[in-house]
Amino acid sequence: MGIKENYRDNGLNALISHQTMTEKTLLKNKEIDKTIQNLEDSLKIDMFNVSKYFELASCYQARNKYLKANDIYNKTLEIEPYNPNIYEYLGNNYLYLNDYDEALNCYLMSWNLLVDNEEQYLNAMYNMCNKIVEIYLKIDEYQECLKWTKNMIEINPKNTQGYLHMSDAYAKLNDLTNALKYAHMAFDIRDKNNHIEKSLIIKYYIKKYAN
C-alpha cells in the first residue's frame, strides 16, 4: 500500500472514530435530558424530595449546566437550610465554575453546621477541612491553610493527609525545617517499617523546596 492510500485510510478511520464518539455523546446527552425531564415532572408532585433535587443537579452538571445546578442546590436550601451536605455540594459546583471564593464560603458554612453536630459528623468534618485546605492552597493563603490542617490533625491524628498538607504549606512559606518535619510525621504514620519509601520522599522534598 502506498503512502497516499495509507494516509487516506488513517484519515477515514479517524473520521469514523470521531463520528462514533459523537454519536455516543449525543446518545448519552439524550438519556441525561430524558432523566432531567422525568425528575422535573416527578418534583412537580414530590416537591420536597431533596434526594431528587440532588440527582437533578448532578444531571445538569453532567450537561455542563453549572448555573442551573446552582439554582437547584439553592432550592434545596429553602427546604433544608441546615443541611451541611447541600452547602458541600454547592461548593463543589462552584469549583466547576472556578469560583473559589463562593466555594470556600459554602465549605465554611458546611463546616459550621458539621461542628454543631460534632459527634455525628466527625468523618464529614475531616473531609470538609480537607476541601477547605485545598482551596487555601490554590489561592496561596498558606497561613489559613496551616490553621485548617491543624483542625484535620486534631480530628484524626492517624490520617496522613493533614500532615502532608501541613508540609506543603510550610514549604510554600519557605520553611523547609517544618516542611520536612511534617513529611517525616506523615510517613512515620503511613509505614514505620518502609524506610526506603520515607527516605525517597524526604529527598524529594529537599530537591523540590531547597531552592
Protein described:
With 211 residues, this protein is an all-alpha fold. The chain is 82% helix and 0% strand. It has helices at residues 3-45, 50-62, 66-79, 84-96, 100-115, 122-138, 142-155, 160-172, 176-190, 195-209. The protein is elongated and about 60 Å long.
Q: Over the alpha carbons, how many angstroms does the gyration radius reach? A: 24 Å
Tell me, rounded to a whole number, the average pLDDT: 82
Indicate the percent of residues in helices.
Answer: over 70%
Estimated share of beta-strand residues: under 5%
Query: What low-confidence regions span 5 or more consecutive residues with pLDDT below 50?
Result: none
Distance between the termini: 55 Å
Structural class: mainly alpha
How many extended strands? 0
Shape: elongated
Our count of helices gives 10
Element-by-element helix/strand order: HHHHHHHHHH
Describe the sheet with the most strands. none
Concise structural overview:
82% of the residues lie in helices and 0% in strands. By secondary structure, the protein is mostly helical.
Task: Give keywords.
82% helix, elongated, mainly alpha, 211 residues
SSE order and pairing:
Blueprint lengths: L2 H43 L4 H13 L3 H14 L4 H13 L3 H16 L6 H17 L3 H14 L4 H13 L3 H15 L4 H15 L2
